[in-house]
Task: structure prediction
Amino acid sequence: MAILDLGYREWRGDRTSRATRWPVVASSSISLVWRAFWLRRLMIFAMLPTGIILLLFFLYEQGLEYRELRQPVAAFLRGTMQNDQLSRLVIEDPATVRHEVWSLMLYWFFRYPQGVLSVIVVGMTGPRLVSYDLRSRAYLLYLSRPLTPLEYLIGKMAVLWFLLALITTVPAMLVYFAGLLLSPNLNAFLVTWDLPFRILGVTAVTVIPLSAVCICYSSLTSESRFATFAWFATWILGWVSYAILTSGFLMRGRNSRFEIESLNRWRLVSPYHILDFIQSWIFGLRNFSGEMAVALALVSGVTILSIFVAHRRIASTLRK
Amino acid sequence: MFDIDVRNITKRFGRRKVLDSVRLRVRPGVTGLLGPNGSGKSTLIKALLGLLRADGGEGTVLDLAWPSQVRAIRESVGYLPEDDCYIIGLQGVEAVQMMARLSGLPRAEALRRAHEVLDYCDMGQERYRPVETYSTGMRQKLKFAQCLVHDPRLIILDEPTTGLDPSQRDEFLQRISTLAKHHGKTILLSTHILHDVRQVCDDVIILVKGRIQVEDSLENLSCPVESGLFIKFLNDMPDAASRFCSAGLQSHTVSSNCIRVVGASADGIGEIWRVAATMGAVVQSVEPIRRSLEDIFIEAVGEAELGNT
Result:
């Protein structure tokens, strides 16, 4: 028998706004996935390419003062990015091409190291977000609160937004501001002020479709391994299909401009290449075209369809 | 007057009508929602919470329009689902805190309140264990704590005592009773266990095949249906019924130490004492004949079956 037992006590206090409920789902899920030791390791590993891009920014900006430092940047642009013209300009007059060089380096950062790492991070964490709730019927606990199925899904997707922002947006922004600090003159900001907005734009077109498709897969099964398999299969099969469809043209050796351009239509089969195509447009490396409109429509359509399917799936589970 | 007052709730799953123009009225106190398996109890509860979209119906829940304001309704309702549901990976206290935050409590306040409610639900240090390691009884306690953490006006409990041992069940029912009597909560208790209903409920609703068959207070339902008394003796008295009959009191044997005296009432108790004294029997109790909840339940189900045929 207790000496003092307060028993049940009533609670009176101000409640938070209803608009703040989905961030609760997000923050709880983030704290949950963050407990995984391997994820913390993976996130640290995913930060490593930031060092490479930071070094390139440093070399480029210092190259304005010290001519011998221009060579590695020019080699990067010529070798990795296959842009001979820009490479030559970096050697001759680097100050005139600052915006193009910064854009190209940030594009490379998003496309290659962080693009691949994003797919891996989402594939390792996303599939369990909803499927675990389906397995343990936790969605009943969430949805019996003032929370709609759509808010629940947004909360779950926000977990992936957070992780992806940590490995793409945050390092890209840091690199950009580090570039401004490394620059010998203040003119750099006036020339490149639009890049933070472009980084946010690229983040949006990458993160939203990725999270929507992954959450959709996750909502379709209570076995997260099936969703993981489907996720990686989508990327790998897309990539392989694109490679097979374009290899015939490329193996003929020197192709005409028309033939090279005609390859572009095959990128629609590969999620990786279609996102790369849109990212390059947002960074100003490609002009808007009819194909770009098709790519944007396709990505938007897949995103909306994924959210619709996931929503239907969550709503239907309540009937059981 | 009624915290839940909804009418014409209809729900179909395909061609099957699960709820058929249900009129549900629940007043403050504890109301037992009874019904056989598949009678539509859980569907009715989910429809009330807006987890399922009802095909028809209107009314008010906690003075809020139903179904148009289900989100606001959920803010003031605590729901303990029948299903074994939990969030994998969270500790007990985190799970309760999270539910509090989803109901609008600020983060720090949610944690303080989570501990307070877990104390009330008699959860000790096990609150720091991952919920997937909990036993069934502990999960029921956890769900109850999650249901209470935001101090709801209306509490809906779907099979809350499932998986609890007898002492835990008694404690649980005691808490339900305390919440209704001392804290003014309206509680809708959906259960199969008639003993639980007898112990804590003020009103009873029996739902059979998607229709309400019985809706009344437990007191009214337990009124004597015929004049007569149950006489229980301290010792076995196998010939008691015949001795009472020979004394002019029509009686039937119920058990070796209990008889039913038909037509007797409290006014004629003197005659009963006299016959018992001549038999040398010690009377342990005299009670008016009442219908048991089991009888009422079986009757309601039987009537529904009959109505269908």
The mean pLDDT of chain B is 89. Chain B has eleven helices and 14 strands. The first strand of chain B starts at residue 4 and ends at 13. Residues 175 and 304 of chain B are 34 Å apart (CA to CA).
